[in-house]
Design brief:
hydrolase; EC 3.4.11.1; 9-stranded mixed sheet; single chain; Cytosol aminopeptidase; 2 domains; Leucine Aminopeptidase, subunit E, domain 1
Length: 461
């Protein structure tokens, strides 16, 4: 069930949001019996704390939700969502204490707090439904929440049920939902249609590699989204150790995030022409795996020396980016769970991105702060270009030395994104390593909401 707000016909329980400095003032304004109840409970208004206040018949007549203080709020987001799991089923309405500029963030967090991944085991979702606060566009937030939940479901599904074929089916279902055009280039047709690197990476799997394409909208600026769809990554012949392979079902997190963002764009009817490209493969091991020291041709005509088969994501993205650039879009974005170097640099909570366009960066940074979807700009550092030029081929897929790995990967992709195309690349993690408000452990979208908020300004729509 998709997250939803309470209906206006529901009889909501009033919610009072109280922070560390406002609790006493709130208590002083209440009837004596409420004052006695709150004091006897020992309630402290920390983030995640709640207190039901019984009415005369014993049922709750109100609820207090703690909001901490400035220092506590700076250390996280979606603060009200931390208390939602403690609330009984029913409808709720925030009637006091929530700053107006936080209403949208907290309402979205409340929605997302009902997410559970229950495909393989029965799990109970929260049934504490919020009446959308005044001034909040409930329909818009429900669409955004649905896009985020789609991303989470796709990432959380193991490769046994989310191979390239299943990812194709999920994309086809999304296209059908929104009336988008849909096509796939499959298996050996990748070679005849000139996508040699997508084919090379995915040919060792018994699930054929493919390029998934979706097109929607017939007017407005052209936006192309490219998502890495490596449905499982063994590392290929440069086999990952077990500890590094354990989360590789999430290596299609870029594709999952792109599909979630596409749902938001189409569901909200943004006035643009959307193109989604997903190279979907499994990087498996067999007798026909691509090998270290192989030199691959690419769609763009550049040759690539393979110095590590575990740097495969940039190879499949390269062919897709070259294809996307051929239509000269107004903006092209790639999203990928690409490098461990990005995680070392910024950790799991930030979505690092690379762009040479200061206007895009300014729009993204402002949007990220507004919608509480943190991003961090990283540099396309031109002096490192020499590191991706091995001499024997045009490009090296895995420069030696290990320094600046996220940057050299981004520079590699930029070579394929087309001269003159506005291009931005996200190197995301796509995984919540420990539970946080509105974000249970597991797959998570990163950067999509910031992009959605930034697109109107960037594209002039």
């Amino acid at each position: 069930m998709m997250p939803r707000f309470a209906h206006s016909t529901d009889a909501p329980t009033p919610v009072h949001v109280v922070d560390k400095h406002g609790l006493q003032d709130w208590i002083d304004d209440q009837p004596a019996r409420v004052q006695a109840w709150v004091r006897a409970s020992g309630f402290k208004p920390g983030i995640g704390q709640s207190l039901l206040i019984p009415g005369a018949n014993g049922t709750p007549e109100a609820v207090l939700i703690g909001y901490g203080d400035d220092a506590a709020r700076k250390r996280g987001r979606f603060h009200l969502a931390a208390a939602v799991p403690s609330l009984p089923a029913g409808a709720y309405e925030i009637v006091s204490g929530l700053p107006a500029d936080k209403a949208e963030e907290e309402a979205l967090g409340w929605l997302l707090s009902s997410y559970v991944f229950d495909r393989y085991a029965s799990r109970t979702a929260s049934e504490a439904y919020l009446l959308a606060p005044e001034g909040v566009d409930a329909a818009r937030l429900e669409i955004i929440a649905a896009g985020e939940c789609l991303t989470r479901d796709l990432i959380n599904t193991p490769a046994s049920d989310m191979g390239p074929d299943a990812l194709e089916a999920a994309a086809a279902q999304l296209a059908a939902e929104h009336g988008a055009g849909f096509s796939v280039i499959l298996g050996e047709d990748l070679l005849t249609r000139n996508f040699p690197m997508i084919h090379a990476v995915g040919r060792a799997s018994d699930k054929a590699p493919r390029l998934i394409e979706m097109n929607w909208g017939d007017s407005g600026p052209a936006l192309t989204l490219v998502g890495k769809g490596v449905c499982f990554d063994t590392g290929g012949l440069n086999l990952k150790p077990g500890a590094s392979m354990g989360l590789m079902k999430k290596d299609m997190g870029g594709a999952a995030t792109v599909l979630g963002l596409a749902h938001m764009i189409m569901g909200l009817g943004l006035p643009l022409r959307l193109r989604v490209l997903i190279p979907a493969v499994e990087n498996a091991v067999s007798g026909n795996s691509f090998r270290p020291q192989d030199i691959l041709n690419s769609r763009k005509g550049l040759t690539v020396e393979i110095n590590n088969t575990d740097a495969e994501g940039r190879l499949v993205l390269a062919d897709a980016l070259a294809y996307g650039a051929e239509n000269d879009p107004d903006l092209m974005l790639s999203m990928a769970t690409l490098t461990g170097a990005a995680r070392v640099a910024v950790g799991p909570d930030l979505a690092p991105y690379f762009t040479g366009d200061d206007a895009v960066a300014a729009a993204l940074d402002g949007a990220a702060a507004k919608v509480s979807d943190p991003v961090w700009r990283m540099p396309f550092w031109d002096p490192y270009e020499a590191d991706i030029e091995p001499g024997i081929a045009d490009l090296d897929n895995a420069p030696k030395g290990g320094f600046g790995g996220a940057i050299t990967a981004a520079l590699f992709l930029r070579r394929f994104a087309g001269d003159g195309v506005r291009y931005t690349h996200f190197d995301i993690y796509g995984w919540q390593p420990k539970a946080a408000p509105a974000r249970p452990t597991g797959g998570v979208g990163m950067g999509a909401r910031a992009l959605l908020e930034a697109l109107p300004g960037v594209l002039g729509i």
